[in-house]
């Protein structure tokens, strides 16, 4: 963990008592001692430091910290990810990794090639998926703002009814597709506005879905000649978008997703 996150209700008189995996991390990984300070943040709030007041080094681990939060969180990432619902084990990785790379909102949608049984997963409960969002913030992003996650069980309803109210928030709308007319570099380089990026299921979008995205204003982009699994494609796309925004040179020419 690069930052220890806690909820508002966990702080009392500017102290936070940890008795879970966070305490174990401080003891076993950071090897901290009384008087040491660690990076901390309140979920949805400020960041700062926590000074260790009490430390129980044996199981059950326990750490009491005096917390001082003085920094505002970073700005919300200027990218929203539209993702055809993948199988749950893959979704766990995507939520964590994409949060670390910077996503403001996840729109998890239905697609022809999405198995309906995926929608019955417990992972779609806020108490389950938020654990993976927090992991992304703690391990890499050093941020306190959890991305918003919105589920859309009907594709046409999402693209025809919901999205028209959202599109005005975005300067650029992209859909990853093997036969895109432009490379990601062509479309993203120099773009500073908000981006919406759509990534399909294992096997890719069907033609009908691509046509509806295009009718909604999305532009097809390619990102490399290799066939990638969805979680790999998401990381590659987000990493490339971040690099291109910052002026990096990224060579991208085609995109495929596969099981």
Q: How do you describe this structure in short?
A:
The protein is α/β, with parallel strands linked by helices and 259 residues long.
Q: What does this entry look like structurally?
A:
The chain is of the alpha/beta class and 259 residues long. The protein starts with a strand and ends with a strand. Strand 14, helix 7 and strand 15 form a beta-alpha-beta unit. Strands 9-8-7-12-10-13-11 form a 7-stranded parallel beta sheet, with helices on both faces. The protein has 7 helices and 15 strands. The protein is elongated and about 60 Å long. 30% of the residues lie in helices and 27% in strands. The longest helix has 16 residues, at 126-141.
Helices and strands, with pairings:
Layout: E1 4-6, E2 11-12, E3 15-18, H1 21-29, E4 37-42, E5 47-56, E6 62-71, E7 79-84, H2 88-101, E8 105-109, H3 126-141, E9 148-152, H4 155-162, E10 172-176, E11 182-183, H5 184-188, E12 195-199, H6 207-215, E13 219-222, E14 227-228, H7 230-245, E15 256-257
Parallel strand pairs: 1-4, 7-8, 7-12, 8-9, 10-12, 10-13, 11-13, 14-15
Antiparallel strand pairs: 2-3, 3-6, 4-5, 5-6
Helix pairs in contact: 2-3, 2-7
